[in-house]
Predict the structure.
Amino acid sequence: MTLSSVITLANSIIGVSILAMPYCFKQCGIILATIMILLSGMLVKVVCHLLLKSALLARRRNFENLAFHTFGHTGKLMVELGIIGYLAGTAVAFFVVMGDLGPPIVANFAHIENTANLRLVVLTGLGLFIALPLSLIRNIESLQYICTASIGFYLMVVLRVVLQAGPHLVTSEWLSVVNLWRPAGMLQCFPIFSMALSCQTNIFEVYASLPDATPAKMNEVVKGAVNLCTAIYITIGFFGYVAFCYVDFAGDILTAFPLTTLLELIKFGFCMSVAISFPLVLFPCRTSLHSLLFRKTYQGIGSTELVSDYIPPTRFNMITGCLIVVTLIVGILIPDIELVLGLLGSTMGSCICVIFPGMMFLKLTNKDTTERLAARAAVVIGVITLILGTYVNLQDAAGTSVGPPGPEFIKPLPVLNEKPSIKTLGKMTFMKRTT
């Protein structure tokens, strides 16, 4: 297992969902949310193993080829559309986050008003001058140093949240305020947890760049990356919920902090981390879109192998530019990050990251083994998440949620001498503004 590969894969996993973890802990309760994250991590590791095993059995080297080998033209088309929708939606979520964090920073620095036009200018600048140039890099391994810096910014966010929770932890008052176990939030948050740890669409890209690549080595890379992200999510979820349990915070935990210079720097670093993570999303999305639009089907009679993963420079640049522009426009028009994350996790995420890998493994094997049993379980979990998760998220988006997060929120008397500031909550509502 190489550390650079673990960092690269971990950076493709961690994204905008890290800011939503305290909100999910509030919705599900601390104990239940922790269990759900651990189970989601186990599910991701099992599905990635099944995906690599299927690729080894079929002797195929990417998701599209594997789908074509197992389910023919229809399977290939479904996987390509699913990957494109899933990753394009993730890119849209990235733009929404940058649109929430970037403009206030620019407005405070330049002493100008934070308006919709400023959001448009900031997002356009980040998309065209940071995300686009980085996405034009062909070798994903060349991004390992950028990925390491990005992980560093995420850890800074976690550290800041932990420090904020410190004064509350020395007392026991927070135990009477927080939810420990709230099953009513499971169906809404499980798709977010699953999507937050998903890396199935990236493992073939990382596997191709792994020195002396073997399935066993790639399994170790997946295990290391998922465990690292799980630890980060649990940490920021628990401490973020404890730190702001006395205020009714929304989805973006950074908006609950009082305005300080340090916080502005952290927001700026997180915004840049999201921007430089675009290539990790666009790599597999671009490959699937090229496969859908340009590739030939057969090399020869009776062959099920697609021609090549190579994309000519002109097509490479054209597809990359179109993906950036389209996702930028959608991100500008749709600021609701909570809906984006929930629906992506329950629809595209369930199909591409859970259901399809399990079905492909079942198609390629006949013996009743533990792996085949795990594949059946993955398909069942994916179908349940697809149906119930989509229903709950659509119901919540329509304003008829299954219920409030516990009893009606009542602000208790503050434990500290200084009240936690909620000044910024009115400016940015990140996940309840209408992702």
In short: The longest helix spans residues 63-110. The radius of gyration is 21 Å. The chain has a mean pLDDT of 82.
